[in-house]
Design brief:
heterodimer, A: alpha/beta, Rossmann fold, two-stranded antiparallel sheet, 44% helix, B: Rossmann fold, 2 domains, seven-stranded mixed sheet, five-stranded mixed sheet, 41% helix, 20% strand
């Protein structure tokens, strides 16, 4: 990946993390740990890989994303707001009775959400349905399903995995955000699911290991997935739960908990500092097309503010 | 009274007949195509038929995904697995986003017969009608089913359709000008002393009960309430006002189905005695379909008994 593009994507990711944190703090509830682990994956998808048009969120030929691990919607809502689907101010109503930014993704009320999710294991089936519709209609859109590594304990995931292979859905890419933690502890303790690669291979999927925080590697992996024919691809994306906030990293306790005021102050400073650094770095390369795109979207305007 | 045909057979024919007119119609099944009667569609339109294997939860989710892309999916399996096993997928993946998926549960009720309690779903009306925005429909005969499928394919939203395994007499074709309309019950027989509100194959038995009661001088109205949700409250309340008592009958647990829907309506808006006839909160058992129905009192005589008791309760 070109350095200038990388820097702009890093900035987008930093902003997503910062906005996710603000949502969870403002709502005093929500799932911050997984939102931070999935942020880079969503960044690469929404700001690089996916063909979408925020002006026309229902375009029939658009790429689609199902956040099957729906509880990490703070990251999704942040990505959608930054991408221009709706004003960032809406994020202040995350989980609020006064708005429609529900605690899990809501396709009816939130522009850009392609599927209502939240009950684990269900989103991947909907993604299979979308990919199947693409095959029926001979369209070339792609479908992305983002799952958690705890989520794959749900049997329905494997039902969907069989179906995707049966119908040779090479227009479907699943990403498992492998952060190794779930509510009750480590996935290895709660319900060991490794070896994930061998499991998906046995289900006739193309399997790619990738560092879920390496934006360039993710871009490459998505390109490999798109190039694979005859079978669906899964990216096993190694991530750190709570990524970007020192005291949240690799701590299952931050799965579904909001920070208190003190903790938020520290987290905000760390995340906004990252935004500032990324802004500076990206600004140096402001000739880049990607930067211009982000500028048009208003990402570069605010000197680290959200 | 016309020919005997199972509603599942009429359904299977209807989806084939409508396939040309509705290119967005796609059919999913979970390894039961020969029983749910989607096999005709599978043969005629193999590119629009998807056998999802014995994986009902995934099937419902896939149907939801197809619906987001403009398809009109009909997802088929036994009532037990559609409305039971996949309940939460119907609720969260289909109904919550109000997607245009038709969940079709064949082999509803006790008349499954020999397979016994594990497959005799008497709870599907209850689970499906408890979901906001779901239409719940169970036609009584082949003629009504054919028209119901047409109505459901034109209806843009989530719906549950129950099919029966057993061949049943066609009764609605004898009604002059009969036209199926979702949410509108049909008065099959006029009457002034009591109203029997029936659904599914209990409609035929309700008509037979009305004959029995006529011999005793009781003039029973019979309503075919093919749509349990939304309930035709207007028709129910008129029956309450005009006949002063109601008996509901359904091949379903008396908890959560048509009977309770009618009770809720009547108690709030025109309180009169309502007795519920159906499966008395027990599991079914194996046997020939008619034997099982008889064992649990789901007969014309069983309905007539309830009517006699309801008449005693009249104000």
């Amino acid at each position: 990946m070109e350095a200038r593009k990388l820097h702009t994507l890093e900035l987008a990711a930093a902003k997503i993390r910062s906005l996710a944190m603000d949502q969870v703090y403002t709502a005093a509830s929500g799932h911050i740990g997984g939102s931070l682990s999935v942020a880079d994956i969503l960044t690469v998808l929404y700001f690089d890989v996916m063909k979408v048009d925020p002006e026309n969120p229902q375009a029939p030929d658009r790429d689609r994303l199902v956040l099957s691990k729906g509880h990490t919607t703070p990251a999704l809502y942040a990505a959608l707001a930054l991408r221009g689907y709706f004003p960032k101010e809406e994020l202040k109503l995350f989980r609020s009775i006064r708005g429609h930014m529900s605690g899990h993704p809501d396709m009816v009320h939130v522009p850009g959400v392609d599927m209502s999710t939240g009950s684990l294991g269900q989103g991947i089936s909907a993604a299979v349905g979308m990919a199947l519709a693409g095959k029926i209609d001979r369209k070339d859109y792609r479908v992305y399903a983002v799952l958690g590594d705890g989520e794959i304990e749900e049997g329905q995931v494997w039902e969907a995995a069989m179906a995707a292979a049966k119908y040779r859905l090479d227009n479907l890419t699943a990403v498992v955000d492998v952060n190794g933690l779930q509510i009750d502890g480590s996935t290895a303790d709660v319900m060991p699911s490794e070896p994930l690669d061998k499991k998906f291979e046995a289900f006739n999927w193309n399997v790619i290991h990738v560092d879920g925080h390496d934006l360039a590697a993710l871009e490459d992996a998505f390109a490999q997935a798109a190039a694979c024919t005859g079978k669906p691809t899964v990216l096993l994306a190694g991530t750190v739960k709570g990524k970007g906030v020192s005291f949240m990293e690799n701590d299952a306790g931050w799965h579904g908990k909001a920070p208190n005021e003190e903790q938020y102050a520290v987290a905000r400073e760390e995340l906004r500092n990252r935004v500032r650094i990324c802004t500076d770095v990206a600004a140096v390369d402001s000739m880049d097309d990607a930067v211009e795109v982000l500028e048009e979207l208003g990402l570069m305007d605010e000197e680290g503010e959200n | 009274m016309g020919e005997k045909i199972a509603t599942r057979a009429a359904y299977g024919k209807a989806i084939v007949d409508l396939a040309e007119k509705y290119p967005e119609l796609v059919v999913l099944d979970a390894d039961l195509a020969s029983a749910t009667k989607t096999d005709g569609f599978a043969k005629a339109y193999p590119d629009r038929f998807f056998d999802m294997g014995i994986a009902e939860c995934d099937m419902v989710g896939v149907a939801a995904g197809l619906a987001t892309c403009g398809k009109k999916p009909f997802a088929n399996t036994f009532a037990m697995f559609a409305a039971g096993r996949a309940f939460e997928q119907v609720r969260n993946s289909v109904a919550y986003p109000h997607l245009n998926v038709k969940v079709v549960g064949s082999h509803g009720g006790l008349s499954v017969g020999e397979d016994g309690a594990t497959h005799q779903c008497c709870e599907d009306f209850a689970t499906m009608r408890s979901i906001p925005g779901m239409v719940v429909c169970c036609p009584c005969d082949g003629n009504e089913m054919t028209q119901a499928v047409q109505a459901l394919i034109d209806y843009d939203g989530p719906a549950y359709l129950r099919l029966g395994r057993l061949a049943v007499e066609t009764v609605t074709d004898a009604i002059p000008g009969y036209k199926f309309e979702l949410g509108k019950g049909v008065t099959l027989r006029p009457g002034k002393d009591v109203t029997i509100i029936a659904v599914g194959l209990m409609v035929q038995k309700a008509l037979a009960a009305a004959e029995l009661l006529a011999q005793e001088g009781v003039d029973a109205r019979v309503i075919d309430m093919h749509t349990i949700k939304p309930l035709d409250e207007k028709l129910v309340l008129r029956a309450a006002r005009e006949t002063g008592c109601i008996v509901t009958t359904e091949e379903h647990n008396i908890i959560g189905g048509l009977g309770e829907a009618v009770c809720a309506c009547v108690s709030a808006k025109c309180p009169v005695p309502v007795l519920r006839h159906g499966v008395e909160d027990v599991f079914g058992r194996s046997g020939k379909a008619e034997q099982v129905l008889e064992h649990y009192g789901l007969t014309a005589e069983g309905i007539a008994d309830k009517v006699r008791r309801a008449m005693e309760l009249k104000f």
